[in-house]
Amino acid sequence: MQGASARAQIKALITDFDGVHTDNSVFLDTDGREFVRCSRADGMGIEMLRGRGLKLLILSRESDGVVAARARKLQMECAHNVKEKLPVLDAWRRRNGLSWQELAYIGDDINDLECLEACGFAAAPSNARHEVKAVCQVVLTCAGGDGALRELCDHLIERALVPDIPA
After folding, report:
1. Percent of residues, the chain, with pLDDT higher than 90
2. Which residue has better confidence, 156 or 34?
3. Half-sphere exposure of 33 (CA within 13 A, CB side)
4. What's the average model confidence in pLDDT over 87-106?
5. From 3.40.50.300, 3.40.50.360, 3.10.350.10, 3.40.50.1000, which CATH number describes the 7-158 domain?
6. HEC-encoded secondary structure of the chain
7. How does the average pLDDT of the chain come out, rounded?
């Protein structure tokens, strides 16, 4: 009989930032500094995946320092100010010795489509563009910035798509 670990295949989670970690809103102060809102529940989900040995990457078009700051807080690798995501993801994947099938990707907009289609597992928040939802195995019930990442992490763990916690 095959156990859950025999089904585990996802070894990395790659996330877009705006629309996934955030609700796509931005707050500006009078000096032009940007602020966003992120869910602490999402952070706990990321921590649970890190504890299972997953590699974690934020891959974002956004150039603002808020992306890098959130990545540091979550202890995720970060590639931001990326115009063409697929070549950057491919280089990261090869550097980490991973196959496309071992990657899970969550994105919400058309600039995520190539990565979603290339990865073995694709997910979208409930508020993603319809073109994105159409190519995903899972469309989450939560919106970006409102628990979508935590819902995805729970989904991967509950369905034994990620390794068990190391003993």
Report:
1. 83
2. 156
3. 5
4. 98
5. 3.40.50.1000
6. CCCHHHHCCCCEEEECCCCCCCCCCCEECCCCCEECCCCHHHHHHHHHHHHCCCEEEEECCCCCHHHHHHHHHHCCEEECCCCCHHHHHHHHHHHCCCCHHHEEEECCCHHHHHHHHHCCEEEECCCCCHHHHCCCCEECCCCCCCCHHHHHHHHHHHCCCCCCCCC
7. 92
Q: Which residue ranges make up each domain of the chain?
A: 7-158
- Beta carbons of 159 and 141 less than 8 angstroms apart: no
Tell me the whole-structure pTM to 2 decimals: 0.92
